[in-house]
């Protein structure tokens, strides 16, 4: 089927699907057709299967007292990222302010990475915009003893130290123009239509920044503007790049909610009630799908000249936050969102479609919710506000789907999702890591790698015999590596483990398809291997750090029992499962299990106490280091 005919065919589908229905009928176009459309929100991962081989990397970890280890500012509200790939680099753009949503000062920052795993220190791309010159002060001018609670107390008089500045808000970040120029954009104001306007500057080939201009000023802004208008630039190609965005009927809808009170909003955006957080993907020359918050969708068949009135896709389970849609390099399509029937924002998951209209096979992208370390208004927990690379804004090497998002509106994360996206592994597996690139992608493994808990391939014990390292110095997070394997009632799992340092314990869970931990093993901080069953914990063997040991599980899922061998010797026989089921994944983790902890309710509900920060969140703890190699499964 040719591309032209395929586009015509899908356009006919759209026409037929709407025949006999009024425009806006719920769910008549974009659908989720699978049965597993909703996550179990009692668990961070929703008890859903993971997207095989997905790698989660923390771009930066917020740190109030050591900004040099984080964002250079020490600010703890970081949110709403966007992503581009240009000139050989991933570039991430996000909002940042001191402590919480709607609390100025606010800036937009960017950071870049060559490989998507290791990121540079961010830099401010759009600084604080002051509207009262008399109050031009920096956070360093505030009294040293001013507490977070005092900052938030409306009755606490900060004058004359109050920083009077405009908020920043944006739903998009980058535009690679047809002439090759890379523009970065931000918005001074909120999404209420009353802001100052949209600003733009160029990122040059050496990643230095051009001057700031206004590309569009809101009609109802009555004050001055402190940057020139874009067409005043002496650089004709920069002006051309700006106008290529302004005349793009599809891309400019990303500005809609910040500018919906414009006099020309009906023609510049859409002639309908304003919708939020637009993203889009192209199916053919004659069909582009638009997505908004709250499951609202639309489409255009004429390149954005006219749009269907936005309607709700009722078959998607998705209560809020952003949704991302993208055509994949293999010709399939993906939706990435939080599939919950409440306002929880966990897990972050991906659904797949062959035609861009009917989606199925939800799988977890990011299913971890660490404890929120810093209090702040509207800091909802979870992996949220996801964005990938907008069409035309670059395509990294390989077929992978890359998405960025914030976790707890605190830390920035990126995920690499291998394409084709799958949820199952068939048959036995064998991984010695020797053929994988040192420091590169851990093929077929699901990796959760915070900045202070890196998970990576290393030359240990040497360059010929590599291993997977899990390191942990984070007091509020952990490293995790998961390997999914074929489901079989009777099989053997084996791996070599090297414990270098173990100050807090190392956890090994063997799980079923929902992540239920049927076999639980812990090497405690005293370096004793423990097995955990229905009657509690049982010590089975002391080990000596600094030596390789082989651990083997012979598993009989029919009888819900297993045998544990260490260096070929049986140390725990006929051990009972914790529950019933059939195993299909193993998880190595440097911290205790937390996926059933109600998010936002850690400890004594500190996350809800104004001004409360978790103690010692900015300081690393004693280093824990483990190496795994020669992981294999075998059907018995």
Describe the protein in words:
The protein is mainly β and 636 residues long. The chain has two domains: 3-417, Neuraminidase (6 Propeller); 454-635, Exo-inulinase, domain 1 (Jelly Rolls). It has four helices and 38 strands. The strands form seven sheets. The chain has an eleven-stranded mixed β-sheet with strand order 21-22-23-2-25-28-37-30-31-32-33, with no helix packed on it. Strands 24, 26, 27, 29, 34, 35, 36 and 38 form an eight-stranded antiparallel β-sheet that branches. Strand 32 (528-533) and strand 33 (536-542) form a beta hairpin. The chain is globular and about 80 Å long.
Domains counted in the coordinates: how many?
A: 2
Strand content: 35-45%
Rounded to the nearest angstrom, the distance between the terminal CA atoms is 46 Å
Question: Sheet with the most strands?
Answer: 11 strands, mixed
Q: Give the overall silhouette.
A: globular
Class from helix and strand fractions: mainly beta
Uncertain spans, ≥5 residues at pLDDT below 50? Answer: 1-27, 133-164
Please state how the strands of the largest beta sheet are arranged side by side.
21-22-23-2-25-28-37-30-31-32-33
Contiguous helical run count? 4
| Name of the top-level CATH class of the largest domain | Mainly Beta
């Amino acid at each position: 089927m040719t591309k032209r005919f395929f586009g015509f065919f899908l356009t006919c589908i759209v026409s037929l699907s709407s025949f006999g229905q009024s425009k806006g009928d719920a769910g008549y176009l974009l659908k989720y057709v699978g049965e597993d459309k909703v996550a179990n929100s009692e668990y961070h991962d929703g008890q859903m299967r993971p997207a095989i081989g997905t790698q989660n990397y923390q771009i930066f970890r917020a740190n109030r007292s050591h900004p040099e280890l984080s964002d250079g500012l020490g600010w703890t509200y970081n949110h709403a990222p966007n992503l581009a790939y240009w000139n050989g680099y991933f570039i991430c753009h996000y909002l940042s302010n001191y402590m919480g949503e709607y609390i100025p000062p606010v800036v937009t920052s960017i950071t870049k990475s060559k490989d998507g795993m290791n990121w540079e220190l961010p830099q401010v791309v759009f600084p604080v915009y002051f509207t009262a010159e008399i109050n031009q002060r920096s956070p360093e001018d505030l009294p040293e003893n001013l507490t977070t609670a005092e900052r938030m107390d409306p009755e606490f008089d900060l004058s004359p130290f109050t920083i009077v500045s405009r908020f920043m808000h944006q739903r998009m970040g980058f535009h690679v123009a047809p002439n090759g120029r890379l523009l970065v954009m931000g918005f001074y104001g909120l999404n209420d239509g009353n802001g100052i306007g949209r600003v733009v500057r160029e990122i040059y080939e050496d990643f230095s920044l051009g001057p700031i201009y206004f590309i569009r000023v809101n009609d109802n802004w009555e004050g001055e503007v402190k940057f020139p208008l874009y067409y005043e630039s002496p650089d004709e190609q920069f002006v051309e790049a700006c106008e290529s965005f302004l005349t793009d009927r599809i891309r400019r809808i990303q500005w809609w909610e910040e500018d919906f009170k414009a006099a020309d909003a009906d023609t510049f955006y859409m002639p309908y009630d304003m919708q939020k957080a637009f993203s889009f993907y192209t199916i053919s020359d004659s069909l582009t799908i638009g997505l908004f918050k709250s499951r609202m969708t639309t489409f255009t068949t004429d390149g954005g000249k006219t749009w269907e009135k936005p309607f709700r896709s009722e078959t998607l389970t998705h209560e809020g936050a952003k949704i991302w849609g993208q055509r994949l390099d293999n010709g399939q399509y993906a939706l990435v969102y939080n599939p919950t029937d409440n306002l929880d924002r966990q897990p972050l998951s991906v659904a797949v479609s062959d035609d861009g209209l009917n989606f199925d096979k939800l799988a977890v992208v990011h299913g971890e919710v660490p404890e929120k370390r810093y209090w702040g208004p509207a800091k909802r927990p979870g992996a949220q506000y996801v964005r990938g690379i907008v069409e035309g804004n670059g395509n990294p090497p390989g077929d992978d789907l890359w998405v960025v998002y914030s976790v707890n509106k605190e830390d920035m994360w990126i995920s690499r999702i291998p394409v084709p996206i799958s949820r199952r592994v068939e048959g036995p597996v064998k991984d010695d890591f020797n053929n994988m690139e040192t420091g590169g992608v851990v093929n077929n493994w699901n990796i959760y790698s915070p900045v202070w808990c890196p998970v990576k391939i290393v030359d240990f014990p040497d360059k010929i015999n590599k291993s997977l390292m899990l390191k942990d110095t984070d007091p509020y997070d952990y490293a995790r590596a998961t390997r999914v394997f074929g489901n079989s009632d009777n099989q053997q799992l084996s791996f070599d483990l090297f414990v270098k340092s173990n100050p807090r314990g190392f956890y090994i869970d063997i799980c079923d398809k929902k992540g239920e931990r049927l076999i639980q093993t812990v090497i405690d901080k005293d370096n004793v291997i423990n097995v955990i069953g229905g009657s509690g914990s049982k010590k089975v063997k002391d080990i000596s750090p600094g030596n390789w040991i082989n651990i083997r599980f012979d598993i009989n899922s029919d009888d819900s029992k297993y045998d544990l061998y260490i260096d070929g010797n049986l140390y725990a026989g006929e051990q009972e499962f914790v529950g019933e089921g059939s195993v299909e994944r193993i998880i190595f983790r440097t911290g205790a299990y937390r996926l059933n902890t109600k998010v936002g309710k850690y400890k004594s509900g500190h996350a809800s106490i104004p001004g409360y920060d978790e103690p010692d969140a900015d300081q690393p703890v004693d280093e824990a280091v483990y190496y795994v190699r020669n992981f294999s499964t075998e059907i018995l």
